[in-house]
Design goal:
5-stranded parallel sheet; 422 residues; alpha/beta; elongated; Rossmann fold; 34% helix
């Protein structure tokens, strides 16, 4: 997810520091290169050695140790012979001071936990340690992750300082609610590591979809037979959730119509949870009118039970049962046929054989702008592969998408949707 990206963690002094260690490991696992700057207070909670062990990089703590910082950074391959990212300064990296190098190295900065004291310093331009001094020269995107007592979070001073920083283009992820270290309950907890990673992602991607509304459905539907049993499809909802995450990270307003078990990815995604195919149809229809993009990844049950019992059907009551099924509405075809349909409607077709041939038939039958044919064996896997199929001016065209993880697959699909002419 963060392959090739440089993330600088500014670590403030709070009990939530230990969760930043979890985040560090997560970012590195997802491909990021991570460096850390710790305040003196942060070092009281967790030693710099912890983050050195996780990142394989020296942790920066001292504003006045500029020579070692410069030598450490200037010796890295990314810096040798480069010119300062800010062309206006036109200064060779080897002649910059350490805190400036750190700021220029990063693609994005996350300050976590951002304490009330640290937020106040940043809002008023106080530069009395390495982290606050570095922020005076930082021209890369910055995300603040506040964590503190609920009363401190709600105080007029903290909120005023946050508004000042947001006006200065800082991004802020709101703290979570729950049990606080002080023993009280309320808002002020540092968000989960995955939520923090999700919040960093928009800082690293071009906001090419800003102003657009995307609708994505995902996951299986459940069709009740009785109070216990259901008819469903084998699907995880992972691909649809990843598509929603990336579209949101690129600036789109995203509504995810999520079937049972669909995972949560992406902070800015508006999620509507549904169970049955009819519930999914109604939810999609309500929000799809006039949207920019609709993507139908959900594994909707083709059929539902004609007769549903509100009690459990006992096996002892019958050794053999005749079950009548009724066809569900084709959601993607229904959306594509709306009077004020979305500008682009994309279908998915999971097949066990003749993938391209079946998908081409569905492309025309459903009236969609493009269809992604994939193999049913990918439904329980972390990987995906398939074919992107469109009906262009020179006839139906298909393009193979090689096997990759579902994060990469979703990126490729979004790229192709952006290139598709409505």
């Amino acid at each position: 997810m963060f392959q090739g990206k440089n993330i600088l963690l500014g670590i403030g002094g709070g009990i939530a520091v230990y969760r930043v260690a979890e985040l560090t490991r997560l970012l590195i696992k997802q491909g990021a290169k991570v460096r850390c700057v710790m305040t003196a207070s942060a070092c009281e909670f967790v030693t710099p050695l912890t983050f050195e062990a996780l990142t394989g990089e020296a942790v920066h703590t001292d504003l006045f140790d500029l020579t070692s910082e410069r030598d450490n950074l200037a010796g890295q391959p990314n810096w040798t012979g480069e010119v300062c990212r800010n062309a206006g300064r036109n200064m060779d990296v080897e002649h910059q001071m350490g805190h400036i190098q750190l700021a220029r190295w990063a693609d994005a900065v996350l300050i976590a936990p951002a304490t009330s004291n640290l937020i106040a310093k940043l809002a008023h331009g106080i530069a009395d340690d390495l982290l606050t001094t570095m922020m005076q020269v930082c021209d890369t995107p910055v995300l603040l992750a506040p964590a503190m007592n609920a009363s401190m979070w709600e105080s007029a001073a903290t909120q005023r300082n946050l508004h000042t920083l947001q006006a200065d283009s800082f991004s802020v992820i709101e703290p979570a609610s729950g049990a606080l270290a002080c023993g009280e309950q309320g808002i002020g907890r540092l968000p989960e590591p995955q939520a923090l990673a999700d919040a960093i992602l928009p800082l690293l991607l071009p906001q090419a979809l800003r102003g657009q509304h995307w609708i994505i459905n995902a996951g299986p539907t459940l069709e009740a037979w009785d109070a216990v049993r259901v008819l469903t499809n084998r699907a995880s909802g992972t691909l649809g959730a990843r598509l929603a995450q990336y579209a949101s990270a690129m600036g789109a307003s995203v509504t995810l119509i999520a079937g049972v078990g669909t995972p949560h990815f992406g902070c800015g995604v508006q999620r509507v949870d549904v169970k049955s195919g009819d519930e999914m149809l109604q939810a999609c229809t309500q929000v799809a009118q006039g949207a920019d993009v609709f993507i139908g990844t959900a594994a909707v049950s083709d059929f539902r039970f004609a007769n549903v019992s509100d009690k459990k059907i006992k096996r002892a009551d019958a050794q053999q049962l005749d079950v009548q099924l009724t066809a569900n509405t084709d959601i993607v075809a229904s959306i594509a046929g709306m009077k004020h349909r979305p500008k682009k409607v994309i279908a998915f077709a999971a097949e066990s054989e003749k993938h391209i041939a079946y998908a081409k038939v569905k492309l025309q039958k459903k009236g969609v702008d493009a269809i992604v044919a994939n193999d049913v064996r990918n439904m329980d896997s972390d990987t995906a592969s398939g074919w992107w199929i469109v009906d262009g001016k020179q006839g139906i065209h298909e393009e193979s998408i090689e096997k990759c993880n579902k994060i990469q697959f979703s990126q490729e699909i979004i790229k192709k949707i952006m290139e598709l002419k409505p």
